[in-house]
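Sample entry (196 residues):
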Amino acid sequence: MKKLWAYFCAAAVLLCGCEQKEQPQQDTDDAAASMTGEMVIAAPEEGFDMNYANCIRDYFEAIEQKQFEGYKKTVYPPYQEAFGAYLESNDSSLEEVFHTLCTEFDEDGYDSWHLTRLEAGYRENEDIDNFFSTYESAGLFDAEFSDAAREDAAEIRDVEFTLYALYEGDEEAVPVVQKQEMIVIRTNDDKYYLFG
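Predicted structure, serialized as C-alpha cells:
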C-alpha cells in the first residue's frame, strides 16, 4: 500500500512530498524507543555535532506535542522576529504557522502518530550562501539580517535529515520526510538553533 505524505514547513519555506518505502531493519534500541515514545537519533559517529540533531529533534517533538513555546526555543530568535514580521505583513502569525505544522503528519484513517527516528548528517553539497540569498530574494529577511546572523555564528551548517513516524495501528514506522535539509546555527555563545 502506497501512502503520500506531505510536509510543508512554512517557517523554512521547505516543501517536500515523501512516499512510503520499504522500512529498513530497525535495531533493538529503535524498536524499544518506538514503544516507549522516545525518538532515536541516528547520525555519523565522527565529525558531526550531535547538538544540531538534538535541536532538530526538539523542533519536531514540539510539533508532535503541539508545544508552541518548545518550538520557539529551537528557532533562531532573530529569525523568529524577521519571519514573524514577514507573516504579519501577510495577515498571518508564527503561531498560526506552527499550528498548521502540527497537522502536517496527519493521515486519513489514523487517529494518531508518533515520531520515532531522526537520521541526520551534514549535507554533501552545503550551500549556506544560497540559503541566505534565496530568503533575501523571497523577502523573508534582508542582507542586513544575513550579515548579522553570520557575525553571530560560530558555525552555520546545512543538515540533511530523514524523519520516521509510527501511525497508530501500524507495526512499522515509515519515512514521512526524506533527505530534506535544515539550516542550523551554533552561535558565538554556544547555543544551537535552526532556521525553521
